[in-house]
Design brief:
- The structure is a single chain.
- The chain has 332 residues and is of the alpha/beta class.
- The chain contains 10 helices and 12 strands.
- A hairpin with a 2-residue loop joins β11 and β12.
- α5 packs parallel to α6.
- Bound molecules: iron/sulfur cluster (SF4).
- The site of iron/sulfur cluster (SF4) has 12 residues, from loops.
């Protein structure tokens, strides 16, 4: 396993706004503020979990990190280099090191191609032209993810959901990446299959020293796989801590509410009383003033409507964006 101290990815103040155009001249009349100033880092060999309700911007952040979506502003460092300054050729080389696994294995695999073609495609794009060499590598990859030689000639519809996700993992591994963004990678699977794919991802991390950004709306899945967990709300980070710390003593009211609604995998852990969040998630076109969570927060005060709380280190290595978060957790 690599040392988990070396920083592999650093995001600095990432913003991703999508313009909304209107009128005869198609002027920008508003924008969807999907990601609004996020800074974080991921160490080599670690898994950073990224959680939040659907529409909070977590997938957009993952795609901005990989430059599948160009950030509106901010910086993305990989091995200390700002990759937003890279040209097309540099990006093509970098893509080998950064891969993504999508939520829906069926729609992310071409139904008209065999598994051999699908898993071997990145190899062909990146210069492995010899067919035999490619097939040998595909076979190794399939075996790595628990599939067999006879699967090579089959098509995606001939597999179960869990097997299809294994094909997605094999394809992501084909170019020996250092970083894999798992975007809701197990969300479409049954619970028992989820556990198998997560165990596979953990084994592969151990074997190849992989680094994961693991994006999910499911807090219990994220806890199991993550070293640290970041929580997003309406395009902003609201909490970040080591996994055990965040689940045992969440500091932000939003995290507390999410955890109170999530099933507990550990029977020895006592559950906080259920917190029902008021109202709907506000629109990311016109997010609330001050603290973006104030319209749904049980503890909101006047200051929360007027000023934005700083994302600060409330306890050692435990960050939260709330005026009233205090050391010792659950203190609100
Ligand atoms: Fe709630 Fe205010 Fe804290 Fe925001 S800053 S989470 S509104 S108490």
């Amino acid at each position: 396993m690599p040392e988990k101290n070396e920083i592999l990815v650093r995001l600095e103040n990432i913003v991703k706004h999508y313009p909304i155009r209107g009128g005869i001249f198609l002027k920008e009349i508003a924008s969807v503020k999907a990601v609004d100033g996020i800074s974080l880092h991921i160490r080599k060999g670690e898994t950073l979990g990224l959680v939040g309700e659907s529409g909070c911007g977590k997938s957009t952040l993952g795609r901005a990190l990989l430059r599948l979506e160009e950030p509106t502003s901010g910086k993305v460092f990989f091995h200390g280099e700002d990759i937003l300054t890279y040209d097309k050729k540099q990006m093509r080389n970098l893509r080998k090191q950064m891969q993504i696994i999508f939520q829906d294995p069926f729609s992310s695999l071409n139904p008209r191609k065999t598994v051999s073609y699908i898993v071997g495609e990145p190899l062909r794009i990146h210069g492995v032209q010899n067919r035999r060499e490619r097939e040998q590598r595909v076979l190794e990859l399939l075996e790595t993810v628990g599939l067999k030689k006879e699967h090579m000639r089959r098509y995606p519809h001939q597999f179960s959901g869990g097997q299809r996700q294994r094909i997605g993992v094999a394809r992501a591994l084909s170019l020996h990446p250092e970083l894999i963004v798992c975007d809701e990678a197990v969300s479409a699977l049954d619970v028992s299959i989820q556990a198998q794919v997560i165990n596979l991802l953990q084994d592969l991390q151990e074997e190849f020293g992989l680094t994961y950004l693991f994006i999910s709306h499911d807090l219990s899945v994220v806890e199991h796989i993550s070293d640290r967990v970041a929580v997003m709300y309406l395009g902003k980070l609201v909490e970040l801590a080591r996994s055990e710390k965040l689940y045992q003593s969440p500091l932000h009211p939003y995290t507390q509410a999410l955890l109170s609604a999530s099933p507990l995998p550990d029977p020895d852990r006592t559950k906080a009383h259920r917190i029902i969040l008021k109202g709907d998630v506000p629109s990311p076109i016109t997010p609330p003033s001050g603290c973006r969570f104030h319209t749904r927060c049980l503890y909101a005060q006047q200051v929360c409507r007027e000023k934005e709380p700083e994302f600060r280190e409330v306890e050692k290595k435990h960050w939260a964006a709330c005026f009233f978060a205090k050391e010792s957790g659950n203190s609100l």
